[in-house]
Specification:
CATH topology of the largest domain: Thiol Ester Dehydrase, Chain A
CATH class of the largest domain: Alpha Beta
Order of helices and strands: EHEHHEEEEEHHHEEEE
Low-confidence stretches: 1-14
Largest sheet: 11 strands, mixed
Radius of gyration: 18 Å
Number of domains: 2
C-alpha cells in the first residue's frame, strides 16, 4: 500500500508488507539486538511495523503526565503517542535490513500532527515505517514515520529525523547564531534524576540518560535529558492554550545536561500559533527551537 501523509509529515514510500506485533516490544531486548545486528544495504526496507487495538493504561498515562509536567486528565498529551510508537520504530531499526545501525543515531528533529485529541477510553492502533534515507552534511539522515488511528480515523502522525554521523558530504555550512524571540521567559528546573524517571515511564533506558558514568562512556560530561521529555515539558507549559488540532515541529539543538535550569520562551501570535525556544539559563546555549501551528 502507499502511505501519503499531509505536509509537513510526509512519506511517499510504498510499504510492501506489514509486521503485526502481538504486544508492545521490550525496549531493552531491542537495544541488545541493536548492539549485535549487522546492517547491510543502502536502501530502506519497504516494511511497516504495526500494533493494533491498544487500550490506554490509565495509571501509565497519569505517570507520564506527571513526569512531563502535564495535568492529569483523560486526554492524551500529543507526545504520549510518540512514546507508545517508539518501540515500533526501534523494532524497525534493529532489523538487519535497516541500513543504519541503531547505536549512535542522533535524534535531530520531531514533528507531531495532532488531528484531534485522543481520549483515555479510546482504542488506538499504531504503525511505523522508515522514509527518506538521504545524505546529510554530517553523514546520513532517515525519517521514522508513525501514525495512530482510532477505528478508520487517522488521529495523529509524527516524523522523527535521525542522524548517523559519518563521512561528510560537502562542506559544513557556516555556523549561524540566533537570538531568542522577544517574550517573557519561564525558567524550568531540570532535575538530575529526570532521565531515570522518564526512562521508568517510557522504557527508553539509553545509558546516556541514566547516570553520569554511563553518559561519559558515550562522550557526555553528565547524563542528558531525553529530547522528547524536553519537547513534552515545553508543551506542558502551554497545554491550557493549545488548540485541539495543531502541528508542533521542533529541532533538537544541543543536549540538556542533568541537572540544569533551562529558559523557555513560548510566544503566541494573533492566530494561535506559537514560537518555541529553549536555552540554557546560564550560558544561553540553544537546546530546542520550534513552532506550533494550527491545522
Amino acid at each position: 500500500m502507499t502511505s501519503r501523509l499531509s505536509n509537513p509529515v510526509r512519506s511517499e514510500a510504498a510499504q510492501d508488507c506489514t509486521i503485526e506485533l502481538d504486544g508492545p516490544p521490550n525496549l531493552m531486548a531491542l537495544y541488545a539486538r541493536g548492539a549485535l545486528a549487522r546492517h547491510r544495504g543502502d536502501q530502506l526496507p519497504t516494511t511497516q511495523v504495526a500494533l493494533r487495538d491498544q487500550a490506554i493504561d490509565a495509571d501509565h498515562l497519569a505517570a507520564y503526565q506527571k513526569v512531563c509536567g502535564f495535568g492529569v486528565r483523560d486526554e492524551l498529551p500529543p507526545t504520549y503517542l510518540h512514546m507508545l510508537a517508539f518501540p515500533l520504530a526501534i523494532s524497525l531499526m534493529v532489523d538487519p535490513a535497516f541500513p543504519l545501525p541503531l547505536l549512535g543515531l542522533v535524534h535531530l528533529a520531531n514533528v507531531i500532527e495532532q488531528r484531534r485529541p485522543v481520549r483515555l477510553d479510546e482504542t488506538v492502533s499504531l504503525a511505523v515505517h522508515g522514509a527518506d534515507l538521504r545524505k546529510h552534511e554530517a553523514g546520513q539522515t532517515v525519517d521514522l514515520i508513525a501514525e495512530a488511528t482510532v477505528g478508520n480515523e487517522t488521529v495523529w502522525r509524527s516524523r522523527s529525523t535521525y542522524l548517523r554521523r559519518g563521512k561528510r558530504s560537502g562542506s559544513r555550512p557556516p555556523r549561524t547564531t540566533s537570538n531568542p524571540p522577544p517574550g517573557p521567559t519561564i525558567n524550568i528546573r531540570v532535575p538530575g534524576d529526570i532521565g531515570r524517571r522518564y526512562a521508568a515511564v517510557s522504557g527508553d533506558r539509553n545509558p546516556i540518560h541514566l547516570h553520569p558514568l554511563t553518559a561519559r562512556a558515550f562522550g557526555f560530561p553528565r547524563a542528558i535529558a531525553h529530547g522528547m521529555w524536553v519537547k513534552a515539558r515545553v508543551l506542558a507549559s502551554i497545554e491550557e492554550r493549545l488548540p485541539e488540532a495543531f502541528t508542533v515541529d521542533v529541532a533538537f539543538k544541543t543536549p540538556v545536561l542533568l541537572p540544569s535550569t533551562v529558559s523557555l520562551i513560548a510566544v503566541p501570535d494573533a492566530h494561535g500559533a506559537w514560537a518555541l525556544d529553549v536555552r540554557s539559563a546560564k550560558s544561553g546555549k540553544p537546546h530546542l527551537a520550534g513552532s506550533v501551528t494550527l491545522r
